[in-house]
Design a protein that fits this description.
Shape: globular
Distance between the termini: 25 Å
Number of helices: 13
CATH class: Mainly Alpha
CATH topology: CHAD domain
Number of domains: 1
CATH superfamily: CHAD domain
Largest sheet: none
Strand content: under 5%
Order of helices and strands: HHHHHHHHHHHHH
Radius of gyration: 23 Å
Length: 331
């Protein structure tokens, strides 16, 4: 017969596995906790490796992406972390990403411009404004120094998370984290009707949810991965809009030295953004049509189904139990 501890671990979803208790008075870490700490450390390691890439634009992009994954992992277990540690982890990750924001915006501006349908005069004005902005861009040496500083600032964070996350962190903690991220995304989606800043924040939360589900899917192409793909597609669509928002800010940051036709160009971009934001919000409603708790419960159910699908059949019951032998997580 399974023990109560083994039953509890069965609730953890696709990251769960057998636990071997060490001969210690300290509580053994759950498999889910070990995997989450390891995933956070892997994201920081990925950021460090990306900072050494030869292509600086690619290095900036990959470092920022790795730091976003690390932050998603922190938010997944935030309810179990001491307040001061949670704040320190989040602030360090945000600050590191922000060091690279200007470089990233200038890097994506030409690609975002290429995606816009513009008149010849408008495109010429846009290209002139982007070229003017890039004159003041950091030098390659400055970008490399910023990359080094950004990853150095987060080097100690894996040890901090490992020390502060309780050994018994379980699926209920993860459900709280999923619900919190989803709740913020829903609120920002509503606010995005009138605010580009809110739309940008909504896209960040969508990417964060994508990374959280990627982590929980554990490489299994199953039910959690299916939920992740829907959010990933939405995040890609929203990302194109955010790139256009960033492009507009770059174009409008030239001060008094404004190329001829820039005002008309900005009006055209405003029209493009209004239409794209409206369309993206409409497409997002189906993914954000339930309460945060119900959505977290849906992910829990998907994780249990993945665990049941990948578990070997039980000789005790022939693998034909009503819930595939997987106990339901607490709502």
């Amino acid at each position: 017969m399974p023990t109560e501890t083994e039953k509890e671990h069965d609730k953890l979803g696709p990251l769960a596995g057998p636990q071997l208790a060490p001969p210690s008075a300290e509580p053994a870490a759950s498999p889910l906790r070990r995997d989450l700490v390891a995933a956070f450390a892997a994201a920081i390691t990925a950021a460090q490796a990306a900072s050494r890439l030869d292509d600086l634009d690619e290095a900036v992009h990959e470092v920022r992406k790795a730091l976003r994954r690390a932050r998603a992992a922190v938010h997944l277990v935030a309810s179990a972390l001491p307040r001061d540690d949670r704040r320190d982890l989040s602030r360090a990750l945000v600050a590191a990403r922000r060091q690279l924001s200007t470089v990233r915006d200038l890097a994506v501006a030409p690609g975002a411009l290429a995606q816009l349908q513009l008149e010849a005069e408008q495109r010429a004005a846009a290209e002139a404004a982007v070229a003017q902005a890039r004159v003041h861009a950091p030098t390659p040496e400055e970008v490399r120094d910023t990359l080094v500083a950004a990853v150095a600032a987060v080097e100690a964070l894996p040890a901090l998370l490992a020390a502060s996350l309780p050994a018994d962190a379980d699926w209920d903690v993860v459900k709280d984290g999923l619900a919190a991220t989803y709740r913020r995304a829903r609120r920002q989606l509503r606010q995005a009707r009138r605010s580009r800043t809110a739309f940008h924040a909504f896209r960040k939360r969508t990417k964060e949810l994508t990374y959280q589900l990627e982590l929980l899917a554990g490489g299994v192409d199953g039910h959690v991965e299916s939920l992740r793909r829907g959010l990933a597609d939405l995040g890609d669509e929203a990302g194109e809009v955010v790139d256009a928002i960033m492009l507009r800010e770059v174009l409008d940051a030239g001060g008094d030295a404004r190329p001829d036709g820039l005002d008309e160009l900005l009006e055209a971009i405003d029209g493009h953004l209004a239409a794209r934001i409206k369309a993206t919000r409409k497409g997002a409603r189906e993914l954000f049509d339930r309460s945060a708790r119900k959505w977290a419960k849906k992910v829990s159910k998907a994780a249990r189904r993945d665990l049941a699908d990948t578990a070997p059949p039980s000789p005790r019951d022939g693998g034909d139990d009503d819930d595939d032998g997987v106990p339901a997580a607490k709502a």
